[in-house]
Structure formats: C-alpha cells, structure tokens
Structure prediction request, 840 residues.
Amino acid sequence: MTGSRATNRAMFWRIIRRLFSANPGRLFVMLLALGAGSAVTAALLNLQVDAKRRLTAEFRAFGANVVIAPRNNNQTGVDDQTLEESILQRIPSSNNENGVAKIAFLYFVAGVTPLNSVDSPFESERTIQTVVAGFEGAKLADILPSRNARVLFSDTANDSRACILGEQVAAKLQENSSGVPLRPVIHYRNLSILCSMVQVQSFGGPEDAYVFVDMATARRLTILDDRISLVQLSVSGTPERINRYISDLQKGIPEADVHGIRQFTEGEGKIYDRISGLLTATVGIVLVLTGLCVMAAMTNVAMERKNDVGLMKAIGGSVRRVLRLFLAEAALLGLAGGMIGGAAGIFLSIGLGKAVFGVAARPRLIVYPVAVALTIIVAILSAYPLRRLASIRPASVFRGEA
Amino acid sequence: MFLRIVADSFGRRPRHKLLTGAALALGMGVATAALSVSLDVGDRLAKEFRSLGANLLVTPQADSLPLEIGGVDYRPVNAGAYLPEVDLPKLKTIFWHNNVIGFSPILEVRVSSSTPRWSPASATFVRPAADGDAVLVGTWSNHPVALPDGGKFITGLQQTSPWWRVEGSWFQDGAGECIVGKAFAERNGVIVGSPLYLATTSSDGLSLKVTGIFTSGGSEDNAVVTSLSIVQQYVGKPGRYRRLYVSALTKPEDDFARRDPKTMNAGEFERWSCSPYVSSIAYTIKQVLPGADVRVVRRVAEGEGAILTRVRMLLWLVTGAALLAAALAVGASSAASVIERRTEIGLMKALGAGSGTVGFLLAAEQLLLAFVGGGAGYALGIILARLLGEKIFGAVPEPSLIVFLVIIALATGVTLLGSAIPLRRASRYEPAPILRGE
Prediction:
C-alpha cells in the first residue's frame, strides 16, 4: 500500500516534469505572462507604500506649517513680545520618524544704510527703516522657500557675518548706488554692524522687506539674550500625524500659542488625500486588470490541453487526479513566475523610486511574498477552466470531434 | 479564399479567440485608464492646489518698505502708495483670464476697538474698561466684478483664502457688517451678532455688526475683516487698495520658465508667454496694472510645482508599468495562439501555401483581433477612467482621440510583436514531420 502510494507520487512528479519539458515554448510564454504580472504587482505595491511616505516629505517644499508665537499678542509693540529661548529645547526634533525643521526668529526694526566707497558711511538720508530678523536653527530655505538667491558681496576674509536681504530691501538700498556692490550697515539704538557677506533672495511675501542675520548678530545688537520672537517649524508626516504633533506641542508648551498654519496644514491634507486616493485607485485597478489579463492569457494556454486530458483519462486517470496534476503544474509555474517577477519588480521599484523622488525606494520585504502568493492564486485560477474538461469523453477527443 | 480562411478560423475556435481577445481588451483597458488619468491629472491637481490660496501678490511699485511682522504692518497709515480699484476688471481681460480664478484687494488700517463685551451674567453688552488694538482689513468676500464684456465675475477672499473657516456668515459687501478673527473675539468677548465700535486717532468711530467669527491659522486671527468700500471711506482713500492677492491656475515651472524673459529671443519669449507659468502670468498682470509690482508667492508656487512634477512622474511610471504588464501578457497570449497551431500551419504548407502566405494569414488574424480587442479595451478603459475621475476629483476626464490612437497602435504592435517570433519559427516548419506528429 505504502509502496504503491510512493510509486504514485513518483509518477505524479514525473508527469509534472514531463509537462514542463515537453514544450519549452509554451513554458516560456506562461512564465513570461506570470512573471510580468508579478513584477508589476511587486513594483507597484512597493512604490505605493513608499510614495505616500515620500509625498509627505515633498510637502515640506511649502516651508513652515507650524508656528509657536507668544500667547498674549496684543500687537502693541514690535520687540516687546518675546518668548524664552529655552522652549526651543522642548520641541521634539522628530515626529514619529518624520523630520522636524525648526528656526527661531528674533525680530526688531532697525536702520539699514548702504555702505560704499563713494559715500561717507552712515549717510543718514539713505538709511531705511526695515525689519531685521535674527534666526537660528535649521537652514532658512527649509522654513522659507525662496528663489533667485544671488550673492552681491562677499568678504570672507573677515569674520563671515552673513546678511540675507529680501528682494525689496535690496532694491531700495540699491537705488542710486551707482553700481557699487551693496554692503549694508545695520544700526540699532547706538550699535551698528557691517555685513561681510550679502545675499539677495526673493520670497514673494513680507519677508522680501526683511534683512535676515544670524541670531548671534541679532543678539549683539539688541542685547536681548535668551529671548526669541517666534519659532517656525516645518513638520512632515501625514495630516493626522501633524495634527497629533501640534496638540502634543500645545500641551508641552502651554505658555506659548502653538498653531498650525491653516493655509498649509489644511491644503496639504486635502491634496495628500487626493493624491494618495488617486495612487491607490490607479494601482488597484492596474493590479486587478493585470491579474485578469494574465488569467485570460493563461486560460487560453490551458484550454489547449484537451488532448492531454483525453489521453490521461483514456489510460485510466481519474478526473480528480488529472485535475490535480494540472493545478500542481499551474501552482509551480505561478511560484516560479512569481519569484522571478517579484524580484524583478522590487528592483524595478527601487529604480522607479530613484527616478521620481531622487531617493531609492526602500524595498519592503512583505511585498515579495504577497506578490508571489497573488501570482500563484492567479495561476491556479487560470487553470481552473480545465475542470470543464472533466466531462469530455476521451474517444471523441481522439476522433477530433470536440 | 484568404478572407474565408480568416473568418473560418474565428468561427471554428470562438473560445480561443474570445480569450485572446479578452486578454487584449483587459490589457488595453488598463492602458487606457492609466493613460487617461495621467493625461488629466495635471489640470485636476492644479485646481486642487488652489486650496492653498493666492500664488501672486500685487503691491504698488512706489510703495515704501513695509514694516510687517506677523501680518501686521507697523507703517503709519499715510505712508506708502496705493493702487486704483478701477483697474481690477482688467485682470479678466488678459490672455490668461481663464486661469485667474480669484483675486481680492486688501486695504488695512490699524484701529483701536472699544467693543462692548458680551457678559453672560447679565446677558447684555458691557462697555470694556480698556481699548484694544486691532487691524481692520477691508476686502471682498463674494464681490461681483463687472467685466468690460458685460459679464460678471464673483470673487473675493472665499476664492483666494479658501482655508478660512467662518462660524456664522461672511459679511455682505457694503452692508456695515464684519467678521472678526477668533483671537480678537476671545480677547474682546465678541460673539456673532455683537455690535463693534472701532476708532483711529485721526478719524471718527466706525460701527459694524459682527456676522461671523473666523479662524485662519494666521495673523488675521487678530483682525477685523469687513468690506473694502467701508475701509476706503473710513481712511479717506476711495477706490484704492494696497495689496492684491491673485489665485491663478499654473503649470509647474521648469528650467525654461525660470529664465529671465529679458534674455530670451523672440521665439523663446513667445513660447514662454504662451505657457501658463506663474511667472508669465505675473508678467501679463503687470502689463495691465500700471504702477504695480507683481510678485510670485514663492512658498505656494514652489511647493506646488515640486509636488505636481513628482505626482505627474509617479503616475506616468504607474502607467508605464501597466502598459508593460499589459503588453507582456497580451504578447504571451498571442504567442501561445500561434504555437498551438503547428498542425494547421503544416497542413497549409503541405497544400502548397508559401511561408509568406501563411505568415500573412496569421498576421491578418492577429491584426483583426488587435482592432477588436483594442477597441473593446479602449471602451472599458474609458469607463474605468470615468469612475476613477469621478471618485477622486468629482470630474470625469475627457475621452481623447490621442489615447484611442495610442491604444490601437499599442494593441497592434503588441500582438504583432508577440506573434512575430513564433510566426518566424512557423515559417521554417517542414510540413511532413508536423503532419506525422513528430
């Protein structure tokens, strides 16, 4: 009994081996269809998981989306509403693996005079009143996107006291400057500081009328140690994550007014939902149709096996065993096609991720077994129409009737 | 005879043809749906991005430097320049008038409010002990602009700042109504329906009725917002405004768009001004608003451009992957249908058909299948694209002729390529061994 079962099993696998080697052309075609389906499934699933995460990072191109401001802002003066600098330490620097960029600003209104070799310094009628913002923390571009940055003057031999001028300030200072490189002096009360490096940027907002200096310079002028006017944060993550971060921050810093910049938090949320919906739907449809397409192609091939089925039945194979044989063949093909295609797909998605986001998509290992399993299911389902062949009579197949 | 053989092949093996056709139709359906969505997505998403509000800012050229911190301008009231309101309808006459989806002029003045506080205890309004400072913003909420062509364009803050949330209702133009920011309302105990008294040092008081309390998440939360005409009258600058926010549909900027138009030659300049880049729209607006300086709000425009480009690329890649999978599966299907017909090919050759004739015959069959399957796939794909578009954007993509042509060409190419290799092999078959069953 055990002996005959072992013989049966050996025969089963022998037939399967023969099925594969009998027609290499057909084998190639089936593997191609299954492998293509599996590759696309793996690539899209991997990209889909990765793209959503990357998109939230892309939104940081908008700059700051959270502001920490003094609570009792009744707008009576410019420089009397400040926060303790120590709150900077209480801002968590990451939001659940997503980065947080923060910049503290100290604002004051000061006089700015262009210094050039033609005029005498401190020429009073050319002094303009403007907002000076000291900043520290991340790079300014992370918080305030700008364009057309150009360096007007650089004297790095001196200590590098860099000033970033908004477009409007630069234009005002350059009026009647007769082509001499612009070099501003900032005066506040009885102190003044000369910029040793001057850069102009276009922000397209009120910042175009600002002069940005580093925080140390601002402190030296204002003698406002450990005070800041405002903190701007650029928090990445899904809309829910950002909202949770904001409410945690509100609890953590009760003395300040923490709020999301609605224009961006809300707009980003809406757009994120749309894009991720679009991506999910497109990927879903592509996967379903790819599956169906592969299935139709495979069924077409399977239907050609009528002769084989007829022969097996003629020499005494039961319907169940014949069917099991073909299903096993399909499952093996699905496994092979899925494994080859899935691996190709994951490599494909790494390349695609690099093309879209400039960073290679991180391969998710869970995607691989899912793609292989889906391919096997599609392969088995596409062999299933063979069940219809159970009712055929061997004789009529050989006579060439059916 | 040729046509008869082709027709017979379809009639004799309907199930095979049906399955090959179905694979083709499904594959092409994927391709059509993905292509239609990708073609359409730029425009749709550009509209979505307008929920970020204005991307262009117009200010007077002759203006003094603003001293603006946290949205409050600390310049004296009479400092700086103004722009005339009468020029505004011209915004809807420029080349890009269809891309301008909203604009709102702003005139601000700092005032002190002496607002009667709502006292819940006595259920009456009580006069406050001290006056608080506030910013009074004059603008449009939903203002009809009479266009030169006789039409009307309704615009205002609701288009340029769509993220504002108003409890109660927006103010009516010129009706002595206002909405107040949430922070202002909390500080001054203002509720919807309160009367509000505002004063400046230079002029008489102004009384307004509060119809709503808004949150903007920005500096405006400390402001009182009312209609432009009221503020113009109040500060004695009739028909003037100081800032204009414009929200326009744009195309993401590429390297070409970032070039300075002054350095372009005539052909390049024409191409630049005929693309709805935010910079070229800014340029056109500057032409119709004399004395104005039009600046691109970089925060909005840059982010929008970056994300649109990424999403577009992402969708094209998904489309590409879908096309590839469909092509491979369809190719495999056509290859299979040729491989299985060895005996038939052998018989035809034994009866005297040349290799060319046999190949031509099989190719004709595949072509017929490609047209039918491709057509059906296109119809299927269009339905899917409609469903997708409706579900995600609430608008259906237009079926385009280009997609149809691309799909038919693709179907033809894929089936022919798929059957090319087996056909070549078939043409080399010797009839005798095949017919002997070897």
Observations:
- The mean pLDDT of chain B is 81.
- Chain B has twelve helices and 18 strands.
